[in-house]
Amino acid sequence: MRLRKILWGCLGVVALLAPSACSSLPQTGEPHEFAIEAPQRDPVRQFGSAPQVGSSPTLLVEDFLRATAAGMYDDFATARLYLQPEASATWRPNLQVAVFSSDFSPSPELKDRQGKSAQVSLSLSTVGTVNESGVLSVSVTPGSVSTEFTLTLNEDGEWRIAELADGVILSQSAFTNAYQNVNLLFPSSDLSGLVPDPRWYPRSRVAAYLMQGLIEGPVESLAPAVVGDLAADLTMPTAGVEVQDRVAMIDLEGNSSSSEAERSALIWQISQTVTQVASVQSVEIRLNGVELDESDVPSGPSYRLDRAIGLLDGSVVLGSTSLSTEVANPEAAGVGVENPAVGPVEGAPVAWVNSEPGRLAVMTLGSAQPRDTPIAGATAPSVDRFGVVWVSSTDSPGVVWAVAPGREPLQVPVPFDGEVAAVRVSPDGSRALLLTRGGAGSQVWLATIRRNDVEAQYSFEAVTELDLFPPIVEGLTWVGETTVAALVPEGEESTIEVFSLGGWPQVLSAPPDVSRITAGSTLGSLLVQRPDGTAFQRAGAAWIELDNSIQEISFAG
Questions:
Q1: Rounded distance, CA 362 to CA 76, Å?
Q2: CB 91 within 8 A of CB 71
Q3: Is residue 172 in some structural domain?
Q4: Fewer Cβ atoms within 10 A, N terminus or C terminus of the chain?
Q5: Which among 271, 383, 253, 265 has a CA at the least distance from the CA of 316?
Q6: The CATH number of the domain where 76 resides is what?
Q7: Alpha helices in 105-226 (DSSP H)
Q8: Dmax over Cα atoms in the chain, in whole Å?
Q9: What is the dihedral of CA 449, 455, 456, 462, to 10 degrees?
Q10: Is the residue at 134 inside a domain?
């Protein structure tokens, strides 16, 4: 009884702070300083103005840049009024978006003017770029863009742009107002789940862009983890997706997948992708004029990302809003128990490390004893939705261990130098975060997992360094499926650096002297702990100290 009461008071508070019950806040603990986060509002539709009579070359370019900010709402009809007819016919505004800080005002400069021709240049720092596929690229250091506009006088004696580079230049505020961050969803390699591929598409026709994105396929780096060609042989005969009474009517032509499983997966991915749009509640898909049956599509895994696991008096304990239970008593947990972890779906195993014997313990919920795997120097494990436990080892440089249910442990090589200090697998099992430490400090790597769970064969592919993070990172966690949070300890100035894959980075203040970080499905679930077990939960934009007896709390994953 004592265990249940303590766990409800600790992990129950954690659950109450999750989004499903965000109106309840803990009453204990002192508030800590925080940065105000502006609430999200519906975007304001922008409208451009036609060219002013008698505009100078620089003023015309300034007004043209303002008109392009409204281009996503009028298909750049107003912006093209600033162009000579030939330039209007050939200009491709959707080829790229260069995004600059909203604190900066572009200042075109007149470089040359001779008779009926003028040259105007523009140089500015950028915070990111978006390619024609909707993929956002950001860097730890600002980029730059320099472009020139050639202007000539038209038959009315007014300056118009005759030559310009493809693409548009937008402030960050104009960009986020005109574009929406959404996910293309591609079936995992075994068709059992959908894997997100973040994109930025114009809000005005986002459903059509989503469908076109599915036809074009995933980004190259995600390809090893998904089936990305189910829609490759399909086309949309019309330019858009018609939405009536919250139903998106999607007409496709071409050859669909041959197997029933792939056909169902295609319907599933289209339905789940398009219904992300706020105005769409359901879809009707017609292929070559025949409506596809949506009654037998997969349902996918049901994630429980806000479930928490921890240690209490030598026991491994698990908590949620409806359950507080002892998973392993001190005898079953063993000597030197630390770093417990639980998988992100119902029925997933739990795992922990016994540091003194040097072993990884994996236990199915409801069983009496764990399965022990000797791994000296094992770090905190990560459990994916397939029940595979991933763990690095200070005694095994250059590899990560993968322990699949009923299989012998497998060493998965990593294609870089340095000690792998931590591994964190995304809830969908498609991506891995790898934290390495070496002479140059910490490095955070993102890898795609190519997996064959039937034969327990795995590899890390498309490994890239996330250079947005500083060289001192104490811990990593996934927030949901596509956001990474890194704990950067700096004494009383500790911070949490957040990077959404395909999104903008942000920095959050953190309580001082914390050494552990974990999160569930949203940033509101962020939880950090000090070495003595003191825990802080993020509530809105503040940190609240929990009345907590649980050590080494970790959310699922």
A1: 58
A2: no
A3: no
A4: N
A5: 383
A6: 3.10.450
A7: 172-178, 206-216
A8: 91
A9: -20
A10: no
CA proximity to 478, closest of 501, 511, 510: 501
For Cα atoms 386, 478, 348, give the angle at the middle one, nearest 5 degrees: 25
- Report the run of H or E that residue 13 belongs to, with start and end: helix 2-16
Calpha distance 407→182 (Å, rounded): 37
What CATH number corresponds to the domain at position 322?
2.120.10.30
Please give the DSSP secondary-structure letter assigned to residue 52.
P
The per-residue pLDDT string of the chain (557 residues; one tens digit each, 9 = 90 and over) reads 333 333 334 444 443 333 333 322 233 344 333 333 333 344 555 567 999 999 999 999 999 999 998 888 888 999 999 999 999 999 999 999 999 998 888 999 999 999 999 999 999 999 999 999 999 999 778 888 899 999 999 999 999 999 999 999 999 999 999 999 999 999 999 999 999 999 999 998 899 999 999 999 999 999 999 999 999 999 998 767 889 999 999 999 998 777 889 999 999 999 999 999 999 999 999 999 899 888 888 888 999 999 999 999 999 999 864 457 899 999 999 999 999 999 999 889 999 999 888 899 999 988 889 999 999 999 999 999 999 999 999 998 899 999 999 899 999 999 887 789 999 999 999 999 999 988 778 899 999 999 999 999 999 999 999 988 888 999 999 999 999 999 998 867 789 999 999 899 999 999 999 999 999 999 999 999 999 999 999 888 899 998 888 999 999 98
Q: Reduce the DSSP state of residue 309 to 3 states and report it.
A: strand
Please choose, from the candidates 202, 204, 156, the residue with its C-alpha nearest in 3D space to the C-alpha of residue 54: 156
- Cα of first residue to Cα of last residue in the chain, in angstroms, is 28
* 22 contacts: CB under 8 Å, gap ≥ 6: 524
Distance CA 168, CA 99 (A): 9
Residue where the block lists tokens 């070496």? 438
Measured CA to CA, the distance from residue 38 to residue 506 in angstroms comes to: 13
Are 209 and 62 contained in the same domain? no
Show the tokens assigned to 288. 């070559």
Same domain membership, residue 150 and residue 20: no
312 and 287 housed in the same domain: no
Q: CA geometry: angle at 422 spanning 418 and 427, to 5°?
A: 135
CA distance 108 to 318: 60
CA distance 99 to 144: 10
